[in-house]
Each structure stands twice: as structure tokens, then as C-alpha cells.
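FW: tagging you since you asked about this chain on Friday. Here's the raw sequence from the shared folder, copied in full. Didn't touch anything.
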Amino acid sequence: MKIGIIGTGVMGSTLVEKLSQAGNQVKVTNTQDFAELSKIAESLGAKAATLEDVVKDVEAIILSIPFSGYKDLPKSLFQDVPEEVVIMDTSNNSPLRDGELEGLAGKTESEYISELLGRPVVKVFNMLLGYTLKHNGKAAGEKGRIAVSVAGDNDEHKKIAAELVDQMGFDTVDGGSLALSWRQEPGTPAFCTELNAEELELALPKAEKGKGPARRDFIIDQLIKADPPASHEETVALMRSGSSGNLI
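HL: got it, structure written out here
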């Protein structure tokens, strides 16, 4: 598959590297100068591209940038991208990092992103920790395979996203429409809790609308205060307890 990826942070770099290793033709861009970007792309097995070029002649586009960065993307970036090209949003809003964003209130995070881009998106990969994405993928059918929720309004786009999730080493669960994607946002039982498909199917409907942000902020506060820093296992345990409402 031909894939364009915007962003080379922890999540973006892992997606670039593993999807390239899976045999896809991946090109990538970031905000660094092109010489530095080229070095990063080569180290990950991909091709460096400008922002304008990374969305051309591809079948899928993955956006892996800070939530507040979407508003700074050119308004015309996707205007010539064919409708059949799936656009995937991997981001999560963190007010501590992103500040207060005009237009977000009353919408799911990905509905807000979709409006900014002027294109439908699929919300995927956002509910995995960077460590999980990089280290905890498993072969299809292997015991203990972690599942990822895929939410969106276009079934064909969701199928393509699910194919890439499988290539990354994870099962998929249908997260419903984009309007329901709040069920996999930070502070919910599905978010960064490393559940298998059966467990995730049960966790999604347990999300309590409106309670995620407070639980998210509580969990972040606990992680900031942790001394020594929480291990990966401790972080997942805190996510499970905090998002279920057991701690607040």
C-alpha cells in the first residue's frame, strides 16, 4: 500500500518503520529541514517528502502530530486528495500541552479534526501508548494480542485502517461512528489499557460520556508526580484504575 505519514514523533516514527517493514511504500514528512528529515526517513526505511508531496499518489494518509498542530496545517492540503484515500487521525487532546482550542467544545476530538481538515477521518492508534505500539504487537492469532478500536463513518476507510492495524501487530474492534469515538479518547476504559478484542468490545460501551476529561487529567497528574517515574506496567495499571473511576 502507498502511505503518507505526517509526523515523526514516538508514534509516527514507529508507524513509519513498521509499516515500511511490512512491505508498504511509505513516505514521511515533519517540520524539520529536509536534510534532517531525509536522514530520519532513511533510518526508518521510508522516503522523505514535503508536506505537499506526502499526500499525493497515496492510498492512505496517517496524521501523527500534536492535537493543537492540526489547526496550523494548510487549508488546501487535502483539496486535491481523492475521496477514496483514507485519512487516519492518531492524536489525543491534552489541554496541559495543547491549551484551550476554539471549536472543540461539544465535539469528539476527531470530529473537530475532521472539520478542520474538511475531510472525513478514521480515529485509530490513539488508544495505544508509544511503548505498546513499538514493542507489544503480535502475530495474528497469537495469544494475548492487544486490540485497537477503529472509529469512523466510512466502512471502506475503516477496513483499510484495520488492515494497517493488523500489519502493526494488533487486532481491531469496530468503534462505531466518529460521533462515538469519544469512547476511545483519554480517560475512558478503552484508552491505553491494553485489552484484547473481547475485553475491548466490553470496555467501549462502559465509557461514561463527559467523565473522560477529568479522569484523563487525574491520571496525567499522577504520572507527573510519580517518583521514580512510572514503569510501562505501572502506567497501564493506572490507566485501568483511573479510567474506570476507581480512583476518583
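FW: The mean pLDDT is 94.
HL: agreed, and The radius of gyration is 17 Å.
FW: great, closing this out.
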